[in-house]
Write the structure tokens for this entry.
Amino acid sequence: MIWSSELIRLPSSWLAARNPRQGHTDGHSSDRLDPRQRHAMRMSGRWRNVGIRGGMTQVGRPVRRSVAAPAGIAVVAAPRSSHPHWGMPVIAFHPILYVEDPYAERDFFARFGFVTTFEGPEFPGFLAIECGSVRFGLSRGRGPMSETNHHGVRWQLLVDDVDGIASVCAADGLRCELLVEEGGDSHRARIAKVLSPNGVTVWFEGPNERG
């Protein structure tokens, strides 16, 4: 399948070499349809026309295959999915954590190896931090922050050394709880459960001891 967000070059002989009467799409020949039927099919999404200029055609969504058509018109099958971005991959995930004091939260995560990658006047009260491939934002909350503000998401980070996390917490006086989480016979991992200055529970999960 061709992702047709770019211009697709057609051979100059494409239109001349094909007999429009031989073209068919899903069992329907465009020549056997009167103009009203063709218009109805295009409006229903089963077909759509794309103008050709000098052997070039620009299409705005995925194309399964092209078919012969009258000179000057290329008829292409519409994709099965009606979603306009069907097939477009997500390339990254950058969540934003809303807290009362993003700068205190930045200093907290710095203890565990995070560095600041953005801080500027364009977005006051907003910071971006990262550690390895993990990147997220810290932003000052809009309005009062309740105690249950962060209960809907488990803020969990995977680490190699849970004891190292516990040592950092002990040295800096951070509240830390060590626990073990098991899932059947295939998962067992130690976790350091740490409370941030803004009341966010951060779960530092170690390697799966059974994986």
About this structure: DSSP finds four helices and 13 strands in the chain. The two ends are 37 Å apart (CA to CA).
